[in-house]
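hey so u asked for the seq, here:
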Amino acid sequence: MHGPLHYLLAEDHARLEALLSRATHAPGRFDHEAFEELRAGLLRHIAIEEKILLPDARRRRGGEPLPLARRLRIDHGALASLMVPTPDRVLVAQIEEILRPHDGLEDEPGGLYDQCENLAGADVPALIERIRAVPTVPVAKHFDGHGVHRTAATALAASARQHRM
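ran it, structure tokens below
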């Protein structure tokens, strides 16, 4: 049985997926407004997981990170890097390539959200309050210069290298 933490964050996944779909829904047209809303929302969602959920779980496990934390952090780094270039349909497909399996690791029974909820126990309402208090993440202008990743493969590889350091 999923609890309120799981439902809150899975609902945010659904909202973000709808925005991603809306960005490329109309043939021959890219919805930049939907993408920009997705961009800010996804970066906020990643901040929630990186700054609240994963550290909270690690603390509750006596300093030991969750087994899936490294994989999630690599995905988060790759997704964040794909938010940098000017978006188009190809970039959206690359983001979807990472998000589909990534969201499953978090949403599926026994995934990140269930694990965090189980670890938090009676502290779930306080954890939800902290999550709701996370502000919108400020976003910079898109940048298409040197070193910008435009594919899931290069973004994931770069993020994995960074997390090995």
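Residues 32-60 form the longest helix (29 residues). The radius of gyration is 16 Å.
lmk if thats what u needed
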